[in-house]
Design a protein that fits this description.
This protein is of the alpha/beta class. The protein contains 10 helices and 15 strands. The strands form 4 sheets. It has a 7-stranded parallel β-sheet with strand order 6-5-4-9-12-14-15, sandwiched between helices. About 4% of the residues have low confidence.
Length: 259
């Protein structure tokens, strides 16, 4: 854990003990400047971990985050904003229709989508991560395509050039995408470069591009760029998304669902 992660964890843990605290008190506790505390506040309010009102910092009781850890792993992601992700995935499952061919990206939110797809619906689904496969494999009447390849444990994702070639031969009605960051100018990003080729292949192979992302992903930038916002047809997110983002999304012609 690096210095910043340690400080953010101490920030959260101390706030849980004190319930509310001023910027000055937090700066004294962490032995940092008030400017540093204000930067941390901006980051932690963006993902709804804390509230900052009338000069007081308070832990958000609706947050499921117990500690701060920017290093991605699928298992740790499942613990963050799980209620919002479940609602997003549950709604997204209603967009799947009988006889669809769909592609489901890796991720913790798309896992909820896979879970809520009803059994007994005739359809074809392509996926490339273990958690999505585990959700779909027991459902009746779903024809599964699994490209395979090299396994990346942190994302539970398989990828290979051969897998991408198979994806390039598939044509889907819909692709359900996840993202680690969404930015107006810098587009949609993920955590790892090895994801990029697969993500771009599934986008090219699908008619309707549907992005599933909780509101904390907006205004975030991650290292690996894979698509512009303009290529997205539908976004499903939670009702915490700010009004400016809502207006922007609708303004560029993207269909928006808030759950």
């Amino acid at each position: 854990m690096n210095k910043k992660e340690t400080r953010l964890n101490n920030f959260i843990h101390f706030l849980k003990i004190r319930n509310s605290i001023t910027v000055k008190e937090m700066a004294n506790h962490l032995n940092v400047s008030e400017m540093t505390v204000r930067r941390d506040i901006k980051e932690l309010t963006a993902d709804h971990t804390i509230n900052f009102e009338n000069g007081k910092i308070m832990f958000n009781p609706q947050s499921s985050l117990s500690e701060a850890s920017p290093s991605y792993s699928l298992e740790s992601e499942k613990e963050k904003r799980n209620l919002q992700k479940e609602l997003i995935g549950k709604f997204a499952a209603t967009l799947v229709e009988p006889n669809d061919t769909v592609i489901i990206d890796s991720g913790s939110t798309t896992e909820h989508l896979a879970h809520y797809i009803p059994g007994g619906m005739p359809m074809t689904a392509l996926c490339y991560s273990m958690n999505i496969l585990n959700e779909l494999i027991t459902k009746e009447d779903i024809s599964l395509i699994f490209p395979g390849g090299f396994y990346h444990p942190n994302a539970q994702m398989f990828e290979s050039q051969q897998g991408i070639e198979l994806i390039n031969q598939i044509r889907a009605n819909k692709v359900f995408l996840s993202a680690a960051g969404i930015h107006r100018e810098l587009g949609i990003t993920c955590m790892h470069n090895y994801e990029i080729s697969t993500m771009q292949a599934v986008i090219k192979s699908s008619v309707t591009k549907i992005l599933l992302a909780d509101s904390s992903k907006f205004d975030q930038i991650r290292p690996a760029y894979f698509a512009s916002l303009e290529c997205i047809d539908i976004i499903v997110t939670d009702h915490y998304l700010g009004e400016e983002w809502q207006e922007y999304i609708r303004g560029v012609g993207i269909e928006l669902y808030l759950v």
